[in-house]
Each structure stands twice: as C-alpha cells, then as structure tokens.
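agent: user wants the structure for protein-glutamine gamma-glutamyltransferase from Cyprinus carpio. delegating to structure tool.
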Amino acid sequence: SCFLDIWDVDVLKRPQDINKQAHHTHLYSSDFLIVRRAQEFQIKITFDRPYKPAEDKFAVEFVIGPSPQYSKGTYIPVFPTEERQSVWRGRIVETSDNVITMGITTSPECIVGKYMIYVSVVTPYGIRRTKREPKSDIYILFNPWSPADPVFLDDEEEREECIMNELGIIYHGTYDDVSERAWNYGQFEFGVLDACLFIMDKADMPLSNRGDVIKVTRVASAMLNSRDDDGVLVGNWSGDYTYGVPPTSWTGSVEILLDYAGSRGTPVCYAQCWVYAAVFNTFLRCLGIPGRVVTNFFSAHDNDGNLKMDIILDENGKLDRNRTKDSIWNYHCWNECFMARSDLPPGFGGWQVVDATPQETSDGMFRCGPASVAAVKHGQICYPFDAPFVFAEVNSDVIFYRRQKDGTLEVVKVNQTHVGRMVLTKAVLHDGRRDITDHYKFPEGSPEERRVLEKAEEFGCQQEKASVPQSDVEVEIPNLDVRVGDNFDVTLQFKNNSDQRRSADVYITGTVVYYTGVPSAEVLFKTPKKVLVRVEDYMHKLVEQANIHFIATGKIKETGQIITAMKVITMHNPKLIVKVTGSPRVSEEMYVSVEFTNPFKFSLENVDLRMEGPGIMPFKRKHIIAPSTSITWIETFSPRRAGSTKLIASLDCAALRQVYGETELTIQQ
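agent: tool returned. relaying tokens verbatim.
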C-alpha cells in the first residue's frame, strides 16, 4: 500500500530499558511505562515499510480521562517534524529499516496521571488510528530532576532520600527523650501508584488541576483524613480501637492505601498524627513530589487561635483540669513537601508544611497547607495556606493563670520557650536525626525572634503582654529513663536565687496522657520533695504511648509567687527481636523470626503482630488470641529486588501498645 501502516508500538517499559533508568522509575513494581514530565522518553514504532519524512504524516496521541480535549490538556498530539510541534515536543531519534525511535518530551506543567497512547497516520481516506492497547498506557509523574518542573530539587542526595527512599524513621516521645519508629513508606510497591491516583479521583479533582503541585498537595491534605470527604484514614484518639487497627499497630503505608483503593474508597480505621503523616509521605514520594515527615515537640493545639496556651490554677496554685481547655501535644507530626511557589513573592518557595491530621478547618474543610516554612519563620503569615495555624504550633506561649475566688484570672507565669521546643526529621541517606528547628524559628530571645513575633502580630496573632515578676525560686523535674513496669522516683529540684529562706507548698499531679496532652487518669497527688511512683499506681492506667505528664505547681509562702515545672516522662517499652536466616539473594527463600518475651506479671491476650519490608516482603499479620508469656512467629519470604532494606515488625494489644523491632539486611542479585 502507498500509505503507512503501523505494525507495532513499543513503549520500552522494562525496568532495564532506557526510559525507566533515565527517569528514576525503575523501582516501581509495575508492568507499565512510568516517566517524569519535562524530560524526554523514547518509543519505537514499526511501520510496514521505511518512513519517508517528506511525504508520510503521522502523530503520537496521548489521551487522559473520559472526554479528551486539546484545550484542557487532556488530548495531546505529538509530531515528529520540527515544522509542526505541539505543547509536547517530538523528534525522530533514529531510523532503521521500518523502525523509527521517537523522542517525546512532555511539558513541565502537564497533568500527572495515567495516559492512553495511540499512533495515527494521515491517509487519502482519512486518519487511521491504532487500536486501544491497555498494555502501552503511560504514567506521567512530577519530576524533581528537571529544572523546568516546579518540584525541582537541586540536590541529588536530598532527592535520593525524599523521593527514592522507601524506608523512614518517625520521631516521637519528648524532646529530651526522643523515641524512633521505623516505617515502610513503600511508594514503589505494587498498586500504590494507582491508589494515589485514585485518591484524586475520589476527591473529584478536575484533571486540569492535577499538574499543579500546590492544588495536588492541598487536595491530598484534605483527602488523607476521612472528615468531610470519606478520605483515607479515620482518626481515633479514644483508646478504644475495637472496630479497626490501633494506630500504633501499623508498620507501613502499603496496607492502608491498598485497603482504601481496593474497597473503592472506604476509610481505613485508625490513625493518629504520625499515621496521617506517613501515608501522606508515601503519596508525595510516589507521585514524584519531594516529601519528608517532621515532628514538632510540644506542639500547641490552641482552641481559640491566639498564641497562648492557657493553663489555669486555683488560688493555691493547684492545676484546675476542668478549666484548662487548650492542649499541648507532646509531639505532632506533619509533612514538608518541596516546590516553587509562583503564587507567593520570591523567597517563599522550597519546603512547605502540609498536614492531614484533622485539627482545624481551612476554607471549610479539615486540611492544612501548603504553608511556606520560610513564611512561618519570618512571621509573614498572611500568605496562603494556613500559615497562622502552623506559626502558633511552634510559637505559642504557655500562660499560667491563677483563678481568684471571685473568678477573675491573673497571669502568674509566662513560659515562652516550651512550645515548638524542637523540630526533627530523618537525616539524608542515613538513620540519624536532623534538627530543623532553625528552619521554623530564630533562636529564642534573639532580636530577630522579637521582630518576627511583632510581624505576626500585625497579621492578627495575639501574644500575652503581661509582664510577670520573675520568681526568685526555680523548680525543675530532672529527666528519667523509665521502662514500662518499673517503680521510679520523681524528684523536684529547687533553686533559691534570693538571699532569704523560702518555703513552698507544692502540688505534683502526674497524669497519664495521650500524646495529644489529653488526660486519661490521674496518678498521684502529694506535696513532698520526692514522689515514689509504683507500678500498681500507673500500670492499669497507661494508655498507648505510655506517657506520664507531671506538672508541679506551688506557691512560695513568703512572697506569694507561683512556681511551676512541667515534665513528660515517656516509659520505654520492651523490644521485639527480629532475626533473618537463609541466603540473602533475589528470589531465594528466606526465614524471619519475630520473638517477644513478656516481662510483665500479667499475660498478653488478643495480640496483633505485623511485619513487612520494602522490596522483600509484603505486609503480613498474625493474631494470637490465647494469653501468652512469650511469642515466636516465623514467616518465609523471597526478596523481589537487590539492595539494602529493613524488615519492620510491631506487636500490639490492649495492655501493651507500641512494641517494635527491626533488622537491616542487604540482598544480593
């Protein structure tokens, strides 16, 4: 025949082919071609005869969504000749007999998602088009390697960590006693990319917005919680997890995302802040947006939007629990994602806070961000989105009020350094910590810090103005290293800065708290210098994160001044022992054992065990109903790919939460 006929279209999609290697998508467990925008990829087209550029006319067509339109960016033809080009560039890379290799470069703002591909040829009888071939569909993602893409991150190590690393560490506990929890983000595991795209479908997000990283991250911050929109995760801070998985039990994001997508959008139970942040992080990294999980220690969760966390004492200096409404979370996890902010003045691009934990509504929905970290640091909180909320989380003052008999409140102490004490994220390419507090605030007490607080006040963030005379007696509760099940002493250290004798009436309340600072049970109440805390006082009252929050408050008899000290003691749990045996090679069978010896006097029942490892073992779980003193669980697995990775395991039951173990291993080809 005189006109061209198309015999074959090969999208060169194997992991070892040029496309996945050049586009850093070789780790995705997917049979489809996955490429990043604003960077050339290649396809091979076989015709029935050699291609003649002078007379043959053909185009490669890309289509996304149900009603493709050129004006909406959902239908894009790509042409091989210089004279005729569209928004995506095409060129002939090489020709050999009947086969041509074509290079295609998508635009830096094109829609992120799954496209269908067709080849069409102009004939005397009209346009002939290839049949729909699902196997050659193409996923197009954000591209942090391309300077043209708004998510461009000009640091290869940072990209290795914030895009390519499937393993993470999430920090919790308290700032002077940090605990770590390993997490499998699993962004390259089978089905995860489809689940992330499904989240945008479920949000009814218009396709034409899906190339805009600001809109994508804002929609995701609303969709990862189930409030308003049947999003991915149901929050539960109650301690009763009968109808779902306790938040402390999860070891990774894969099971959550596959459950959500597999049920076509039934919210998964249950999450607390680090679970929201971890799953959000998987979403970001999977779509090609650099992302990391950060933890803010002593995070202010303010009920009335000012920069004050109010703690109310009675006239004797004793804590009034019923009237103290604001809560300080021992820690709170959110996400940072990296992007240019063309909607803001220069200097506010880079890392942005997004937070999917449902705390406050923003434009009527539970979502938060993206808020520029630089804007938060400089007090420029007028810029979208939700910067005042993030500013308060790291900058609020803790105000102690004494409630007089007539009900009036008098400010007796202001603590300006307690909230936002430390912000941490995982270090780049190793398991250490990175302290990024200075990204969020200037040093406490510096002139810059004062200027920032004044700036924030112009934008409506109110601060406490009362100047309170410094008490001449200081009190402090020193740090303790306590294992769950120990008796321990809480000591008060007093320092008298005056040259006279001082005596004080001091109250200590020890409250078992959720990490959100919400009390669940009081432990003790006495006025000595030293308190012995016995196991039987707290063991049956401990809630999942085993925190006891001590507040010492009191009144100096001679001066009437109020003194206060706060300390969160985090109990340390026993660990799981994870051991691997067998030859560490791809496709070889290996064994893993998880062991736990119960150190407590009571037995554990209805125990849930979970285990997983990216690239080597899909998530597995086991439920043990019978009460037991020690537990051993053995599983077999066959690694899917080479490289260094971890196996992560958790044990969870009503009496004992957050018991973890992990082991590192390197798989040979």
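agent: one observation worth passing along. Residues 80 and 489 are 77 Å apart (CA to CA).
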